[in-house]
Amino acid sequence: MATITTAAMNTTADGRDNWLTESLGRGGGAFVGRITPAGDRTFLYRYTDGNGRRCSLKIGDYDHQGRTGLTVAKARQVAVKWSALYRGDATHGIAPVHDLKGYFERQRRDEQARVRAEEEARQQAELAVSRRLTVRQVFERWAAVDLQPGVGADGKRTGRKDGGEYTRRQFERYLFPTLGHVAVADVRKADLMTVLDVPKAAGKLRTANVLLTDLKQMLRYAVHREVVDRNVLDTVEKRAVGGRETERDRWLTDAEIRQLVQKLPGARMGARSEIAIALILATACRVGELMNARWEYVHLDAATWHIPPEQSKNERDHTIHLSAFAIERFKTLHTMRERGADGELLPWVFPNRSGTGAVCIKSFGKQLADRQRADEGKRLSHRSLNTASLSLSGGHWTAHDLRRTAATIMGRLGFSADVIDECLNHIIQSRVTRVYVRDRREADQARAFDALGQHLEGLFTGAEGDSNVVPMQRAAA
Q: Where are the domains of the chain?
């Protein structure tokens, strides 16, 4: 057998198969070049398998420059390598491979299996990394899924009104500085207890309890998404953090209300804030409901103020009867109504300074708190100088205490608890009553609000005893 050359492979096709064969030694098979009638040129390795059949394996196509195929020299190197594999190496104890096709097929399958295994390992590694979310990353996912306000399939409000902004601020202050970058799977109970100890040590016990509740909820979210295997705070109770919370029962006596009326002018709160105090007392509403009130729902001619479900804490719409006392305050607020940048009247009863929305609920609470700080040391920066202007003899009070005061006055005037609950827009506890008794006791509510208004009028003007409203008789025990 002759040696295959480049010149031979460049021979012009003559309309038939031309085979060029080069022996690779005794028992080593042959290196073959083929030129087809169409002019295609390929290299093959030819051998005899263990069953005596002559087999050919394609080495590759020919290209004398080696760009799109193999040169003669490169193809011969492959053929020699396969020949050595076919014959084996007795010196090194390597057995011959008499079925090269089967051998290469097994190699191909093994290589495919290896590539698949490597890809699966890479994917598992990436998945493991993706599951090792940091504390901050878990918070962001939790906030996007569970804290954004929305409406569930049952029509009930979901998420939180502020979209989790309060929780974000607390986490930015207490949690993220030390643990925000740590994988949540690596966080231990001890780490989180250290975080909770900070507000506890500062005497901010309620803040510590709220922080504990939010951390538990976030970790519960992580457990459900298999980011962590368990909630490390499951066994931690409030008594170990901020302590058991007791229901606040502060309310203002008549004497304190008179005292408050005398102090308001010197507190320098602003006319709207002063009126807000009177309106919470007169309507028994929640501070958030009043701060978000819109003029479209206030009907002075009908003496009503409607609170739609989306503005109500319990998603229960509520229409408050306005007493003469309350109407007078709403009329004053109406004269103060402002226009926005577009020249249109602002829709909010209590607009913020920029006229872009309702005033922040917390700002009203801060105004009250800042004026009851006489015993708390140095005045806070950029806050009121009148640190004792609203301090009352009964101790610290809040906006919600005004709501409790209104309910207490109604009770003292003889109105029943069920009527007061309707005035407060409480959810009726009995499911049967809630489902089957749809009467909201509007007439009784109106009498209760009128009586409350008359009582407040006397306290605010000093004309007590002039009321012409006859309270309902207290029900017999």
A: 6-98, 135-240, 254-461
